Amino acid sequence: MHPLGRRNLPQVGRPGLRIRAILLLILVAWLSESACARRVPGDHADTSARLVPRRIIALAPSTAEIVCELGAADRLVAVGRYCVYPPALAQLPKIGGLRDPDLESILAFQPDLVMVRGRSEALDQLCRGQSIRVYNDPTETLADIERAVQEIGDLLGLPARAAAVVSTMRADLAAVRRAVEGRSRPRVLFTSRNPDQLADIYSVGKGSYLDELITLAGGENIFGDQDIAYPLVSLEEILARQPDVIIESLFGQPDEPGLHETVVAQWRAVGPIPAAASGRIHIVTADYVTVPSPRVVRMAADLVAILHPEVTLERK
Questions:
Q1: What is residue 42's predicted lDDT score, i.e. its pLDDT?
Q2: Which residues contact 262 (CB under 8 A, 6 or more apart)?
Q3: I want to staple 244 with a disulfide (CB 3.0 to 4.6 A). Which of 32, 85, 179, 186 is the partner?
Q4: pLDDT digits (tens, 9 = 90+) for 30-77
Q5: pLDDT tens for residues 77-108?
Q6: CA angle 192, 274, 309 (to 5 degrees)
Q7: What are phi and psi of 137, to 5 degrees?
Q8: Neighbours of 43 (CB within 10 A)
């Protein structure tokens, strides 16, 4: 016998002790098997044995939506201030955002899982000190969104439901791609800014799911060659790239009368831009526009309606 194997065996000399040792080993094995049945498979952040989370705090809208999409909304005990969908989340306590989480409230809710997007050192320290599990939302691209759904599904013990959500999302996006296949691609500027003035303009670049959605919906992102996912761009650069369509993302901004006319007038004052000359300037205010969740399918459909109004899609 291998010496290590011998050293690991219990040294029992009397029959009674031997029987008790065997019974103890059987009990330990049974408890271990029972615990394994409740372990969470596929947790990329922590491979140690954990129980399926039952009290969840989601700071990020994307993860809150995914949890609800998986049918586990009843496990959410609190959410971040920007978590607004589905509407039932309005009834849950709000515990701030990533930059200013209410640590005292988080602790009071006794979560066994906190879901975030980005990093907060204060929150990390709290969760480490209290042995609270943390899931960091990895979503930047469409593939990341699928991965997040699958990981969260595994984390919550709902892998089959997660697989179904991913399958549906893929099928819907494939239908969008087929609907615009072979059509001309207008040059698109997608922006986020303060509508009061044409300054501090952020667009979307390579490596962002919005860049992928523009391409999928039959457009050409004029800043798709930028290595930064959300670059700060200048009016001079926009003029040089001559967008055919401008899409302004103004989530949280009420679509008041005259807003569209004001935005069009701002762009026309910049100089000769095809989108301004033709009036192809669109304002989008839906809450899902900038949330990387399975609702990107809705955003893809919105983009098709803007870029290819002649195409009819079945709305989900």
A1: 37
A2: 195
A3: 186
A4: 333 333 333 333 334 443 446 899 999 999 999 999 999 999 999 999
A5: 999 999 999 999 999 999 998 889 999 999 99
A6: 75
A7: -65, 120
A8: 17
Buried/exposed code over 201-235 (b: 16+ C-beta within 10 A; e: otherwise): bbbbbbbbbbbbbbbbbbbbbbbbebeeebbebee
* pLDDT score recorded for residue 10: 33
For residue 163, the Cα-to-chain-centroid distance in whole angstroms is: 16
Q: What is the pLDDT of residue 195?
A: 82
Pairing of strands 201-202, 232-233: antiparallel
**C-alpha gyration radius of the chain:** 26
For the chain, give the DSSP string: --HHHHHHS----SHHHHHHHHHHHHHHHHHHHHHHHTBPTT-SS--S--BPP-SEEE-SHHHHHHHHHTT-GGGEEEE-TT---SGGGGGSPB---SSS--HHHHHHT--SEEEESS--HHHHHHHHHTT-EEEE---SSHHHHHHHHHHHHHHTT-HHHHHHHHHHHHHHHHHHHHHTTTS---EEEEEE--TTSS-SEE---TTSHHHHHHHHTT-EETTTT-SSSS-EE-HHHHHHH--SEEEEE-TTS---TTHHHHHHHHHHTT---HHHHHT-EEEE--TTTT--STTHHHHHHHHHHHH-TT------
- The 10 Å Cβ neighbour count of residue 8 is 8
Separation CA 253–CA 284 (nearest Å): 9
Residues of the chain with pLDDT under 70: 1-50, 251-255, 315-316
pTM: 0.80
Instruction: For residues 250 and 290, give the distance between their C-alpha atoms in angstroms, rounded to a whole number.
Output: 10
Distance CA 284, CA 286 (A): 6
129: left (phi over 0), alpha (psi -120 to 50) or beta: alpha
Distance separating alpha carbons of residues 65 and 34, to the nearest angstrom: 31
Q: Residue with structure tokens 């003029």?
A: 239
